[in-house]
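Exercise 7. Given the encoded structure of a 232-residue chain, write a plausible sequence.
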């Protein structure tokens, strides 16, 4: 599904402030190091996370709270800029205002997950944005049932990780079912995600996770098993 950038006066203001503020703080040597660390997924400005978050606070200082159209416009416009820090700004904004977003935001979230995809943006979108949308509207679980089978590994990873913060409201049948359905996936990022979501749920119900891993050990990759049982 294609997404369009809605008109937003607030987004105009935010983007003008954001690009000026971040660009002024650019550090090319640090940018080169960060870009190499993240496998050249995108160019960087070289603004470290603590400084970036402080700058972000100045960008939005005194501005009204955004609505869903504002959040959509800002996120999509940030994703159109080459430097990765702008995507980080968008992710932080969406995390902060996820309760303002409706179920209709899910296609936008999918666009962000599948555009210039890497773990540094996908994981936060999965746990804090997609997970928040599903928690607010359980009918979206059916959409996660589709995502877990997606050929795009980042979409499938998002489905695996979207319940990371759900704790005792976790849909365990889906959690374990998703892990089984992707247990044979050859990619590191899927195998790692299986172990991660199980390890996180083990903080809530360690017995259920231990029993599941023992039952399905023959299907699960060794990496998934190690990650799942790391803290048990």
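Solution.
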């Amino acid at each position: 599904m294609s997404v369009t950038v809605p008109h937003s006066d607030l987004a105009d203001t935010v983007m003008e402030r954001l690009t000026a503020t971040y660009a002024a703080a650019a550090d090319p040597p640090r940018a080169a190091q960060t870009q190499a660390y993240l496998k050249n997924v995108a160019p960087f400005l070289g603004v470290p996370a603590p400084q970036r978050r402080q700058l972000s606070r100045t960008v939005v200082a005194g501005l009204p709270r955004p609505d869903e159209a504002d959040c959509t416009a800002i996120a999509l416009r940030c994703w159109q800029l080459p430097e990765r820090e702008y995507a980080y700004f968008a992710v932080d904004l969406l995390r902060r205002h996820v309760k303002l977003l409706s179920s209709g935001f899910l296609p936008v979230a999918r666009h962000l997950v599948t555009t210039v995809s890497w773990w540094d943006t996908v994981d936060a979108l999965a746990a804090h944005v997609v997970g928040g949308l599903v928690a607010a509207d359980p009918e979206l679980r059916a959409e996660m049932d589709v995502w877990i089978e997606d050929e795009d590994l980042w979409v499938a990873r998002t489905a695996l990780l979207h319940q990371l913060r759900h704790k005792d409201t976790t849909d365990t049948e889906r959690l374990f079912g998703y892990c089984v359905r992707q247990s044979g996936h050859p990619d590191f990022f899927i195998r790692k995600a299986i172990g991660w979501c199980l390890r996180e749920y083990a903080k809530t119900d360690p017995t259920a996770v231990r029993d599941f891993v023992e039952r399905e050990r023959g299907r699960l990759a060794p990496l998934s098993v190690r990650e799942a049982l790391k803290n048990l």
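Remark. The chain has a mean pLDDT of 98. Students should compare their own answers with the one above.
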